[in-house]
Design brief:
The complex is a heterodimer of chains A (about 350) and B (about 650). By secondary structure, chain A is of the alpha/beta class. Chain A has helices at about 55-65, 80-85, 90-95, 115-125, 130-140, 160-170, 190-205, 215-225, 240-245, 250-260, 300, 325-330, and strands at about 5-15, 30-40, 45-50, 70-75, 80, 95-100, 175-180, 210-215, 225-230, 235-240, 310, 315-320. Chain A has 2 domains: about 1-45 and about 55-225, P-loop containing nucleotide triphosphate hydrolases (Rossmann fold); about 235-260 and about 275-340, no CATH class. Chain A has an 8-stranded mixed β-sheet with strand order 6-7-8-3-9-10-12-11, sandwiched between helices. A 4-stranded antiparallel β-sheet of chain A has the order 2-1-4-5. In chain A, helix 6 (about 160-170) packs parallel to helix 7. Chain B folds into 3 domains: about 20-55 and about 75-300, Orthogonal Bundle (MetI-like fold); about 325-545, P-loop containing nucleotide triphosphate hydrolases (Rossmann fold, 3-Layer(aba) Sandwich); about 560-635, no CATH class. In chain B, the strands form 2 sheets. In chain B, strands 7-8-9-4-10-11-13-12 form an 8-stranded mixed β-sheet, sandwiched between helices. Classes of the chains: A alpha/beta (about 350), B alpha/beta (about 650). At the A-B interface, helix 3, helix 4, helix 6, helix 7 and helix 8 of A face helix 1, helix 2, helix 9, helix 10 and helix 20 of B.
């Protein structure tokens, strides 16, 4: 049983809009997430990277049940997550929680921290007053905040402190899985490190599983065990973070890694503006990255590549007809270094 | 870490919270008209409430013998009406009725209107459509006609008039509240509440309602006066208060017939209505100004065209360093808010040569943007002011030249590229129109020449199909394209220095890399200096020749980019580099910086970083520390710098 993945997403799809109007005309639909299949194992951190508009936040909302997929299945711990979220979000919320990108916007400006943190204790766990007081103290200690902060209002906190409160709220119901949607991108670098360290510490202490979504490759690399790269609503590459970042197979992952700024590294890419994403209302039949891809051929234009394992590299999959060479040939080509 | 965050926050915080209510009251009293309105309104309310105990004659007792007595007659201060009733007494009792009806109608309308608005805004979709179309139907009738129709159905009477007025005003509340609720319901804290296990009703009334309440109060305060007028209107038409009951509207109606023989009978209630409604409206406007967050945040104070320069001493004969296009020396910029002085920039020297790129690195609140905005006087005044230093551009002090000269130089000599291209570009004009405007502001070109130049600029920033793209609106372009347009605008006037304030922070990594190399190429092609502001050492590496690290309004370390990254001298720089994960080094321990930066209205005497510094000793806190040169081209503001020690990565 423990070998079974904690979360298993199978062919998930989310289309916004679409359907037909009152008069039978088809409405244009945007495929935010298409045919995404991921397994998240117990105790691991799965990183999800991608640029804005690639569907990573939509995927996050599907996992916590804030949004329902228009196709595919999501199974959490052997139970159908979509059906459960539709019936009663509370049961799911006890086990799957969410940390928001903007820490201040995710806290109601007119509630004290105590009220905010007590909500999950009352509504999800049904604790009485005494038990709540004990749990609040534990939570504040876990995220390293002084207990006297409980009676303050969100605007009195800095971004880093507010994010720690957001993390405490996610922890409150003692979940198994936490989805972190760009948890540090709104924070200053010095504070970012504090929050990342706390997240790491909590994971060890409470045996949590994380889905960590970010556009920052270096942050994802430092926190994740495995990483999924998304482009235009699909997963283009997935595998252990060292393999994916060390010897990327998909040309898009290559481009991402080359573009990431790092201290002591001059820019490497050309300055051409040829970066337009395909029209989301009218997606190309083939690979969405084709127009930007240096390796693209006519085959890529016509057919959608599927996620396939590289020979000899289990668990490292890429959706590309002409992938870069894997680990063996890629040695010494570590693109992370300038 | 534990120590830093468990330590109680600065003492100002609780005090600030406690004083937030008196603050709003004080704001209200600052508004003289609103205060006058409040006083008059309070006087009327108190008088109306005290009507039963005041020594007034019965307002309904007729005395035909004393009919139509003039004001100031004996026993009748304001005279009597056609039936000999005391006008003063009727006025007080009438105000009581009008107020009661007006206020109750407002409360009823506010309750039902807000409820409809909240539900419609929160639920959205079909419920929203259904409710709001219903509201639209109510609004489609002229309100007075609708009120008349309601009273006609229910029959005349004060209570029915009250219902009619309440119903007629429900749409006003519903529409206002729905808009706010719609915005709030899509906010993250609502999702967070759902994940905390709250039901929809709980979210609506516990999470959303408190945030809508100020708007409800504002809407109420601006509607009460209107409702009183409407009540008076219905009573005037004989549909409200029924004889003999006094009400301001019915008094006015009674007096109408004898307007020419005894004008005081109608003028007195008319004046009373005017005073009452006027006082309420003045008060309502004041309340709105205090509660409306947009007005509170300073939308009413209009900043002047250029930052005020109030230098304590004007440096004489400052000469620019050789080879520098822009040489800023000892810049100080302060914000004066109330009695507090925020020293955002406390003595900064920036020197940019031809084609050179100087990076300013710092966390948010370190003053890097304010320093850059000060150069061309773009810091809003009030509350900002430049209190020291010179900015020499080609030997000309930008802080002492005329406003007109600064206006000419902006965009021509020194131009800006900001973080968010979507808010920098005007959404209603095509990028071509905006580029042409920027070109024409500085060059006397004909329209077609300017268009040609605009297309040239777009191709300069590597936008494909420049002539076609001129016709595009900003929302039709991707983020990277928009930022390219902004860079093209910055180049419109042959700028010698470009101030780029986090120009790539809002962009995706692949686009960021492209924009960075574009900027890098352009500065070489056009020999323009760049002042590049960022918080990211990775971005700095990609483009900057020299770096200045800023902390609490001062540079703590400057030097050549590679040198600083290789061997930072200031403990803050070292920590800042250490706390950022680096691609390709996933196992590196992230060394967080304890604590938080100091608040710039309460800076310590000594080193501002001492409280967070592992190397701090007593002498660090004793007094100001100067920026000293310890190697050619390297300066550090530290008396225990990390010099000669190898940095272990």
């Amino acid at each position: 049983m423990s070998d079974a993945p904690l979360l298993s997403i199978d062919g998930a799809e989310r289309v916004f809009g679409g359907g037909r109007t009152l008069f039978g005309r088809t409405r244009p639909g945007v495929h935010a997430v298409q045919d995404v299949s991921i397994d998240v194992r117990r105790g691991e951190t799965l990183g999800v990277v991608g640029e804005s508009g690639c569907g990573k936040s939509t995927l996050a909302r599907l996992i916590v049940g804030l949004d329902a997929p228009t196709g595919g299945r999501i199974v959490f711990d052997g139970r159908d997550l979509v059906a459960e979220a539709g019936r009663d979000l509370r049961r799911l919320a006890r086990e799957v929680q969410y940390v928001f990108q903007d820490p201040v916007a995710s806290l109601n400006p007119r509630k004290t921290i105590r009220t905010i943190l007590e909500a999950p204790l009352i509504h999800l766990l049904g604790l009485d007053r005494k038990a709540r007081a004990g749990r609040l103290a534990e939570l504040m200690e876990a995220v390293n905040l002084a207990p006297e902060f409980l009676d303050r209002y969100p605007h009195e906190f800095s971004g880093g402190q507010a994010q720690r409160i957001g993390i405490a709220r996610a922890l409150a119901a003692d979940p198994k899985l936490i989805v972190l949607d760009e948890p540090v991108s709104a924070l200053d670098v010095s504070v970012q490190a504090q929050v990342l360290n706390i997240l790491d510490d909590l994971k060890q202490r409470f045996g949590l599983t994380y889905v960590f979504i970010s556009h920052d490759l270096s942050v994802v690399e430092s926190v994740s065990d495995r990483v999924a790269v998304m482009y235009f609503g699909r997963i283009v590459e997935i595998g252990p973070v060292r393999t994916v970042f060390g010897a990327p197979r998909h040309p898009y992952t290559h481009l991402l890694l080359q573009s990431a700024p790092a201290p002591g590294r001059r820019s490497l890419v050309s300055e051409d503006a040829n970066t337009e994403l395909p029209d989301p209302y009218n997606p190309p039949p083939g690979c969405a990255f084709h127009a930007r891809c240096p390796r693209g051929t006519d085959l890529c234009k016509e057919r959608q590549p599927v996620l396939e394992s590289a020979p000899g590299e289990d668990g490292h999959k890429a959706a590309c007809f002409h992938p870069h060479a894997g680990r063996e040939a890629g040695k010494g080509e570590h693109v992370g270094q300038g | 870490m534990a120590e830093a965050s468990t330590a109680p926050a600065p003492a100002v915080r609780p005090a600030k919270h406690r004083s937030s209510r008196p603050d709003s009251l004080r704001l209200l009293f600052n508004n003289k008209l609103a205060t006058a309105g409040l006083l008059v309104f309070a006087l009327i309310v108190v008088t109306a409430l005290l009507a039963p105990v005041l020594p007034l004659p019965d307002p309904d007792v007729t005395a035909p013998a004393d009919r139509l007595m003039r004001p100031l007659s004996e026993g009748h201060l304001l005279g009597t009406d056609a039936l000999g009733r005391d006008i003063l007494s009727r006025l007080v009792w009438g105000s009581r009725v009008s107020l009661a009806v007006g206020v109750s109608a407002t409360l009823i309308a506010a309750f039902f209107g807000s409820l409809i608005g909240l539900v419609a805004g929160y639920a959205g979709g079909r419920v929203d459509t259904l409710l709001m179309r219903g509201i639209d139907m109510v609004m489609a009738f002229p309100y007075i006609l609708l009120a008349l129709a309601i009273v006609a159905v229910l029959g005349p009477g004060l209570l029915n008039a009250l219902y009619a007025i309440a119903v007629v005003n429900i749409p006003f509340f519903a529409r206002n509240i729905r808009g706010i609720a719609l915005g709030l319901s899509r906010r993250e804290f609502v999702d967070a509440a759902r994940l905390s296990g709250k039901s929809h009703a709980q979210i609506l009334f516990i999470e959303v309602l408190p945030n809508v309440l100020p708007v409800i109060i504002i809407t109420m305060s601006t509607t009460v006066g209107w409702m009183i007028l409407e009540t008076a209107g219905l009573s005037f038409l004989g549909l409200g208060a029924q004889p003999p009951q006094a009400d301001l509207g019915s008094m006015l109606g009674d007096g109408r017939k004898i307007l020419f023989t005894a004008p005081h009978v109608s003028i007195i209630p008319g004046v009373m209505i005017f005073i009452l409604v006027m006082s309420i409206n003045l008060l309502g406007d004041g309340v709105r100004d205090v509660l409306d967050p947009r007005l509170k945040s300073g939308a009413l104070t209009r900043p002047v065209a250029r930052t005020a320069v109030e230098r304590r001493q004007v440096p004489e004969g400052a000469t620019p360093a050789p080879g520098a296009v822009l040489d800023v020396q000892g810049l100080r910029t302060e914000f004066h808010i109330g009695s507090q002085v925020f020293r955002a920039v406390g003595g900064v020297d920036m020197r940019i040569g031809k084609g050179e790129c100087l990076g300013i690195v710092g966390e948010s609140g370190s003053g890097k943007s304010v320093a850059a905005m000060s150069i061309m006087g773009l810091v809003p005044t009030p509350p900002g002011r430049i209190t020291g230093g010179v900015a020499l551009f080609d030997g000309e002090d930008l802080f002492s030249v005329s406003d007109e000269r600064v206006r000419q130089l902006r965009g021509l000599a020194v131009s800006h590229v900001f973080q968010d291209p979507l808010s920098t570009l005007h959404p209603l004009f095509t990028v071509g129109e905006q580029l042409v405007e920027a070109i024409e502001a500085h060059q006397p070109l004909s329209r077609s020449q300017a268009r040609e130049k605009a297309a040239e600029l777009l191709s300069l920033v590597r936008i494909p199909n420049p002539v076609e793209r001129l016709k595009a609106y900003p929302h039709e372009l991707s983020g990277g394209m928009r930022q390219r347009v902004c860079i093209a605008m910055a180049l419109a006037g042959e700028a010698r220095v470009i101030i780029a304030d986090e120009p790539t922070t809002a962009l995706d990594v692949t686009v960021q890399a492209q924009v960075l190399s574009l900027l890098d190429t352009l500065r070489k092609e056009r020999n323009a200096g760049i002042l590049f502001i960022t918080h990211d050492f990775g971005v700095v590496s990609a483009i900057c020749d020299r770096v200045a690290v800023m902390y609490a309004g001062q540079f703590v370390e400057t030097g050549e980019t590679g040198e600083i990254l290789r061997a930072p001298a200031h403990p803050y720089t070292a920590k800042l580099i250490d706390c950022v994960p680096v691609l390709g080094e996933p196992d590196r321990r992230l060394d967080a910086i304890e604590g938080r930066p100091p608040v710039v209205n309460d800076l310590p005497v000594g080193c501002a970083f001492a409280a967070r510094c592992p190397r701090a000793e007593d002498d660090c806190r004793a007094g100001p520390i100067a920026l000293t040169e310890f190697a050619p081209g390297r300066q550090v503001r530290c008396i225990h710098p990390l010099i000669g020690e190898t940095q272990n990565v």
